[in-house]
Design brief:
Largest sheet: 2 strands, antiparallel
Distance between the termini: 67 Å
Strand content: 5-15%
Order of helices and strands: HEEEEEEHHHHHEHHHE
Oligomer: single chain
Number of helices: 9
Number of domains: 2
Helix content: 40-55%
Radius of gyration: 39 Å
């Protein structure tokens, strides 16, 4: 609805009225959507002005600009990178597939452990040779406790690095076994260390095999305690590289 016609008979009074009206509108967060002025000169030379407008709310950004707010207007969020989104989607899909993969059988894991024991002869030989070279020891019983601690660290470095990098050692690749986290992702460093430490007493006492016979997912006890899983890697179809 149009506002009533206001007649101002003096230009200074008109400027004062317009400035006051504009200040009131800006303070209330409103601006005039349409402002029409019909200026004509009367016979006496006085200025007659008609002001009509429709009032609407003003958004925050124009109001800040009109009021002289130094704070910048909020910028639009940066568009997401399609490559990053696709990579995150692929990683989530792969983790979901790994989490649903089957568990290797008990005999498959036993054969993998026998193969692992043969491979560890080479790891122990190289680590023991380095220890004898660095300490200049000429007897196998010399520095016995230090030698055992060194071999424990060397074997642990072999397993932990293989589990962290790809979830597989060489025998595990041969028997299509992969170690993953509970959600199907790569296991963190602390889980790899704790799993290695727990695997010594649980494996050599035979508790791990007994637990795997009654576990609902046929997982070892140290895997259940740490939150990791052994899966059949060939059951997961990995995309081919182009």
């Amino acid at each position: 609805m149009a506002r009533p016609v206001k007649t101002v008979t003096h230009p200074h009074l008109y400027r004062f009225w317009v400035a006051r009206k504009a200040s009131a509108l800006l303070q209330r967060g409103q601006v005039t959507a349409g402002l029409s002025r019909a200026v004509d000169k009367g016979s006496c030379g006085f200025v007659r002005t008609r002001v009509s407008g429709i009032v609407r709310p003003m958004s925050d950004a124009p109001r800040s600009k009109a009021l002289g707010d130094p704070s910048p207007a909020p910028s639009d969020p940066a568009p997401s990178d399609p490559a990053t989104s696709a990579s995150a989607t692929t990683a989530a899909t792969r983790q979901a597939v790994y989490a649903a993969a089957p568990t290797p059988g008990k005999w498959t894991r036993f054969a993998c452990m026998m193969y692992e024991a043969i491979l560890l002869f080479g790891v122990v030989f190289v680590a023991d040779y380095l220890f004898d070279t660095l300490t200049q020891s000429k007897h196998a019983l010399a520095l016995r406790h230090e030698r055992q601690a060194w071999l424990f660290v060397a074997i642990g470095a072999y397993f932990i690095l293989c589990w962290r990098m790809g979830g597989q050692t060489l025998p595990m690749k041969t028997w299509d076994i992969r170690l993953v986290d509970g959600n199907g992702g790569r296991i963190p460093m602390w889980k790899a260390i704790v799993r290695y430490v727990l695997s010594w007493p649980i494996t050599f006492t035979g508790i791990g095999y007994v637990w795997a016979c009654f576990d609902k997912d046929r997982q070892f006890l140290h895997d259940r305690l740490v939150g990791t899983r052994l899966i059949v890697s060939k059951a997961v179809k990995r995309p081919r590289k182009k």
